[in-house]
Amino acid sequence: MAKLSEMFYVNTVDVSGLCVLVVEDDEIMRLSVEDRLRLEGIPVRVACDVAGAHNQLEKGDVNLVVTDIRLPDGSGADLFYDISRHYPGIPVILMTAFGDVADAVALVKAGAIDYLTKPFDLKEFIEKVHRNLSRIEDQHLSANFLGLDNETFRPGSGALGKSTAMRRIERLVARLASVDSSILITGESGVGKEVVASLLHNNSRRTGNPFIRVNCAALPQNIVESELFGHEKGAFTGATQRHIGRFEQANTGSIFLDEIAEIPPETQVKLLRVLQEQVVDRVGGREPVPLDVRIIAATQVELDEAVKDGRFRSDLYWRLNVIQVHIPPLRDRREDILYLARMFAERHAIEMGITPKRLSAEAEAKLITMPFPGNVRELRNILERAVALCDGPSIMAHDLMSQDQDQDEDEVASPHTLRETVESAERQAILQALIQCGWTIGQAAEELSISRKSLWEKMKRYGIEKN
């Protein structure tokens, strides 16, 4: 009789909460792998082709993908590159026949984490899965939210937000911990680009070294180069002493260039030299100064369009855009609104030294429907004002007002699309039923004429939790 250790992979790290997506068109192989993962207590999803894999990935909460290289509607290589582009941070293991080993090796060099040659022993397969899931489970990111004490969280746990998009960003940050590649963060104003930039630096090998933030849009046009690259004494009128620029200040660390599209064309040429050669030329200087700096840039402008219009150099764009991190606007990830609002309410109360304020059900119902053109920055400001000015222990709907708000409260809270209108009505109905039923899920589901499972899913989608 086989020993238990020969039948199951003995692992000291609990990976039972991490989900594996298996993409395999051979039914027998797919079922065998799926059954073995379930025996190990590992959540598993399956797909038989590239299209099915994308459907599963869109549902979120996939932590590892195991895919065959040959698939009916494409290849594992296509899927790997799609994951790298659209679901960065999710590791991929390849399954391949002997004749395709060279392809698998090339994909590992491109970023896939491992491969298996068919036919393989299921024990070997489980060992690789456990090993890579354990790495994910062991990883933790350090953060300093709102300037408070450092906190740590597991990548993909949802500390930046409960949406799939923000969980992906957490995983991507973890995978970039040992990488010095240039990063381009894109997204509208206020979505949290600087927060992600800080997270990238604090979880890199450069943590503890300088992290210099530069708002390129705020640099006076006549001294941009002096501010970025520094100048020597006497370089121009008024240069009475040597000035060390932002890049030299960031040496051995990271520099965050916010609103990079605002850099003047003549300065873009010099910035390109910094990226290419890791040296900086001070204004009026004779010798280049060597640097060791990681560049993280951000923009709310479509840089590819700026390149087409001739406003931004294409060679600089491609140097900056080695790895892109896109942060969607808050209106496209509404499941993050209540999570962030509750966090801001708690943290602002701590900062102000007052008793924490809870969000009432009515306040939450209003928040979920607000348009938030200013994204997370606007949400944070609204909560800071509400915490400071609300009279009772709970923040009410009427407390959620922007400082410059001239519109009628109902107008501000009104949804702008049919989808938002439907979601608002559904969320309010769910909240009302839960409150009336004392937050008893079974009774609320019966009141709403839906199943308990459907109610749980909708509560998760809308971020509804008992205060």
Explain what the structure shows.
The chain is α/β, with parallel strands linked by helices and 467 residues long. The protein folds into three domains: 13-138, Rossmann fold, CATH 3.40.50.2300; 176-328, 3-Layer(aba) Sandwich (Rossmann fold); 332-462, Helicase, Ruva Protein, domain 3 (Orthogonal Bundle), CATH 1.10.8. 43% of the residues lie in helices and 14% in strands. The strands form six sheets. Strands 2-1-3-6-7 form a five-stranded parallel sheet, with helices on both faces. Strands 11-12-15-10-16 form a five-stranded parallel sheet. A two-stranded antiparallel ribbon has the order 4-5. The chain is flat, with a radius of gyration of 26 Å. The model is unreliable at 1-10 and 406-413 (pLDDT under 50).
Total beta strand runs: 18
Largest sheet: 5 strands, parallel
**Low-pLDDT runs:** 1-10, 406-413
* Proportion of strand residues: 5-15%
The portion of residues assigned to helices is 40-55%
Strand order of the largest sheet: 2-1-3-6-7
Helical segment tally? 20
Helix/strand-derived category reads: alpha/beta
CATH homologous superfamily assignment of the largest domain: P-loop containing nucleotide triphosphate hydrolases
Shape: flat
**CATH fold-type name of the largest domain:** Rossmann fold
Mean pLDDT across the residues is 85
Q: Which CATH architecture of the largest domain would you pick?
A: 3-Layer(aba) Sandwich
Total of domains: 3
